[in-house]
Amino acid sequence: MDEFKAISLWTSDRQSPEWQKKRGVRLGLGDDAASISAANEVDGISGPKNMLLAMDTMVETIHFNDVTMTDEDVGYKALAANVSDIAAMGGVPLHALVSVSVPPAYGPERIARIYDGLYNCASRYGIAIVGGDTTASPDKLVVAVTLTGSVEAGAELRRDGAKPGDRLFLTGPVGMSAAGLHLLGDGGGYTSANQLLSDEYRNLVLAHRRPAPSVTAGRLLMASGVCTSLNDVSDGLASEAWELAEASGLRLVLEEDRLPKSGSLASYGGRIGYSPLDWMLYGGEDYVLLGTVQEASAEKLASLFRENGLPFYVIGTTESGEPGVEMIPAEAAGIGKDSVMRDGNGYREQRRTLHKKGYNHFER
């Protein structure tokens, strides 16, 4: 099968021309470049807007293998990672370009399953796939996705807006994807990853294989006007907290006993004798949002999330000082604040520094 027949197999009849036109697509798959109407309002933004651009790449043996992911999962997650970046800016995902480098071991039918996952994610988030590229690869599969989005002009949520005294929050539990990856890597003694789909830890596996980017949460945070900084948790909570701290030029203080932890995460950690805290701090790929909010508005924002059926957890605070991240251990939370207060910074003697550790492609 030649390249053009293969592309047609993978992409034809996936999204109707009418559906794409409603999303501003004037020319999509089949031409040298896509043509998109900048005036479309499918994003719900009627006034001035800015374009958002994100790109993410998944490489076989680095991000996935046949044990940890199905072919459909690879396609789904390649797009979902980009959706999370758009969500972290408070934006709406719109159009995707998909590049696939195919090794000899992958036949056309297998790549078709990867596109099944891509289009499944695209359908879930209203994304039009409008083009891309296909090449041969000598050994490993590579899937790279570029995603466009939009946000109200000047309303982008950035990493550098936190102020001392802000409250630090998460929009969901962390550590589940890392625990799912551990499980899939035979951590639970299973012979097949698919057996886990009927197991009590199914949600851990799905958190790794089919993450749910926080687009609705990002839009709520943007519209609230009180979110001072935002980041998505892709490389681990500690690493993302450091990014906020360095971008905003202040210190973040997390409280361990406030970190949201799912019951299945705690159960699995207990089963294998491993502390879930390591997954929570350093695991990554949770795609929830980590941000800061003005202290006076924290409860109002929490109420807004509850009204919309979304989780919201205040997990710490910010303070002036050398950029960094510290955590108050759970065992220190019950100690009287006055007994360990120093320089107005509370629990100073009980804190421990969280190192800037998370997934890093260039550390081996």
UniProtKB/TrEMBL annotation:
InterPro entries: PurM-like_C_dom, PurM-like_C_sf, PurM-like_N, PurM-like_N_sf, ThiL-like. The keyword Iron-sulfur does not apply. Mg(2+) 2 binds at D56, D85. Mg(2+) 5 binds at D235. Its EC number is 2.7.4.16. It holds the Pfam family AIRS_C. It comes from the Bacteria. Pathway: Cofactor biosynthesis; thiamine diphosphate biosynthesis; thiamine diphosphate from thiamine phosphate: step 1/1. CDD domains: ThiL. GO terms for biological process: thiamine biosynthetic process; thiamine diphosphate biosynthetic process. Residues 163-322 form the PurM-like C-terminal domain. Mg(2+) 3 binds at D32, D85, D232. Substrate binds at H63, E285, Y359. Mg(2+) 4 binds at D32, D85. One of its GO terms (molecular function) is ATP binding. Coiled coil: none annotated. Residues 30-151 form the PurM-like N-terminal domain. It catalyses: thiamine phosphate + ATP = thiamine diphosphate + ADP. Keywords: ATP-binding, Kinase, Magnesium, Metal-binding, Nucleotide-binding, Thiamine biosynthesis, Transferase. The keyword Membrane does not apply. Belongs to the thiamine-monophosphate kinase family. Catalyzes the ATP-dependent phosphorylation of thiamine-monophosphate (TMP) to form thiamine-pyrophosphate (TPP), the active form of vitamin B1. Reaction mechanism of ThiL seems to utilize a direct, inline transfer of the gamma-phosphate of ATP to TMP rather than a phosphorylated enzyme intermediate. PANTHER family: THIAMINE-MONOPHOSPHATE KINASE (PTHR30270). This is Thiamine-monophosphate kinase. It comes from Paenibacillus oryzae. The lineage of its organism: Bacteria, Bacillati, Bacillota, Bacilli, Bacillales. The gene is thiL.
